[in-house]
Amino acid sequence: MTYTGCATAPADYVGPTAIRGVVTKDGQPFEGGYVRLRGSQDEFVAEIRTDPSGQFQFFPVAGTWTVIFIAPGDVRDEATVSLQDGEAVDLTFEVAARAATA
Amino acid sequence: MGEYANPNALVSTQWVADHLDSIKLVEVDEDTEAYERGHIPTASSFHWRNELQDPVRRDFVTKEQFEALAGRKGIGQDDTVVLYGGNNNWFAAYAYWYFKVYGHGNVHLMNGGRKKWELEGRELTAAKPAVSATTYTAQPADSSIRALRDEVIASVGVKPMVDVRSPDEFSGKLAAPAHLPQEQAQRKGHIPGAKNVPWSKAANEDGTFKSLEELKELYQVEQGLLPQDETIAYCRIGERSSHTWFVLQELLGFPKVKNYDGSWTEYGSLVGVPIELDYKEEVTA
Fold first, then answer.
1. Per-residue pLDDT at B269 exceeds 80
2. In this predicted model, what pLDDT tens digit does every residue of B72-111 receive, in sequence order?
3. Closest-CA residue of chain B to A48
4. Of B1, B74, B125, B284, which has the fewest Cβ atoms less than 10 A away?
5. What distance in Å separates residue A48's CA from the closest CA in chain B?
6. What pLDDT sits at residue A88?
7. ipTM over 0.90 threshold
8. Shortest alpha-carbon distance between residue A19 and chain B (Å)
9. What is the CB-side half-sphere exposure of residue B102 using CA atoms within 13 A?
10. Is B149 helix (H, G, I), strand (E, B) or coil?
11. For residues A82 and B46, what is the distance between their CA atoms, to the nearest angstrom?
């Protein structure tokens, strides 16, 4: 399992403050992983399951957030995100084949 | 480790796997398309909005509507019903509460829900089970486990209330969970005097419930709730508070707990009721 990157949406992004992302395995969308959002005091905020497109999204307020990804086979990774008001941050996770099939 | 007050309220994923042919398994999800993409073999599903809510009024289904729903799904009143779903059983707990409202005795939650089943690498299928419709007879609705608006207003400052939303929703920073678009009640904040105990504090990372000792520490020691209290749980629309209602009623054995399913989307839109708002930046001149 690898957290492979974080990018901020273009400056002309118009939409809700958001943390979005996609999970892939062997270059294909990975469905059925669980993405959990935790706040700056490590409190649970929300959790969603990746859809068939491997995507997930949260709409938190500005601040520092931890995004945790878990999947079958004891796959687990996390990323920390600093989010500004009106900003959308895009994360990418890649599931290593051996981990996902363990 | 101590035993929950009603240990039969929960069954394990392994128990479900061992009894698929002898139980009525029902998936209830926030993501209403999840079932179609894959579910536990033999499971049917409830659509929380289309099947558990009245299509016109804001209310849950009547006794007759519930009977028709259970009958369509092939459930008999004496069947062993097991409910599970996503998001750590949010909506499965909501459906469990419905079954209790309508007097179904033999109903259980699968501990850990869909997530635990998936993380254990167990089978999912898109095949829908063959269902033979039944004639289901429900009991009259049990109002002792449901709080309605007027009771909640009259209970402000009188009865303990547990607001089970996230800290940012409780404080008024957010109007809805952080993974959902932000629309809902007219005002943000919480019912005065309510204790903020996010539902998630009762759940482990794999979706199972915390131990009896941990739950006692959380609700009774840290928050000072007493078993005999007439406690009211609420959230935004009543599903997360069903999770907490389940914990207080079935796992800790509090006998007089009510779920306020109108929750913040109702209370936060009422005219003239008191509101506490901790997130003062939201207040404008």
1. yes
2. 999 999 999 999 998 889 899 999 999 999 999 999 999 9
3. B87
4. B284
5. 7
6. 92
7. no
8. 9
9. 24
10. helix
11. 38
